[in-house]
């Protein structure tokens, strides 16, 4: 099984969302995997969701997504795709 990694920029945006928890905003980014040679490859058509909120987005063929109308900056961003196993950041 392959691991899914969400780009660092998303984590930086997440930090900004925690500061602006009362404002409605959107979150955009990309989901990718890193192959054995260290090359990043997009995870096409993965699903990305903000856990516990019901907000989600499907990635395009290049792994890009946008989740709109996020009101709560506290939560966990999760990506899922067929053939991949969940991977906690930093583990």
Low-confidence stretches: 7-21
- Described by the principal axes of the CA atoms, the overall outline is globular
By DSSP (H or I, 4+ residues per run), the number of helices equals 1
| Portion in beta strands | 35-45%
Distance between the termini: 16 Å
**Helix content class:** 10-25%
**Biggest β-sheet strands, sense, barrel:** 4 strands, antiparallel
Average residue-wise pLDDT: 76
Structural class: mainly beta
Could you state the order of secondary-structure elements as H and E?
EEHEEEEEEE
Chart the SSEs and their pairings.
Blueprint: E1 2-3, E2 5-6, H1 8-19, E3 25-34, E4 40-42, E5 47-50, E6 55-58, E7 64-70, E8 77-80, E9 84-85
Parallel strand pairs: 1-9
Antiparallel strand pairs: 2-3, 3-4, 3-7, 5-6, 5-8
Main attributes of the structure:
91 residues; mainly beta; four-stranded antiparallel β-sheet; three-stranded antiparallel β-sheet; 1 helix; 42% strand; globular
């Amino acid at each position: 099984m392959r691991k899914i990694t969400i780009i660092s920029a998303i984590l930086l945006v997440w930090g900004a969302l925690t500061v602006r928890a009362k404002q409605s905003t959107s979150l955009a980014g990309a989901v990718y995997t890193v192959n054995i040679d260290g090359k990043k490859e997009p995870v096409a058509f993965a699903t990305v969701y903000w856990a516990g909120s019901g907000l989600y987005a499907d990635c395009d063929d290049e792994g890009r997504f946008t989740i709109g109308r996020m009101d709560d900056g506290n939560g966990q961003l999760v990506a899922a795709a067929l053939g991949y196993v969940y991977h906690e950041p930093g583990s």
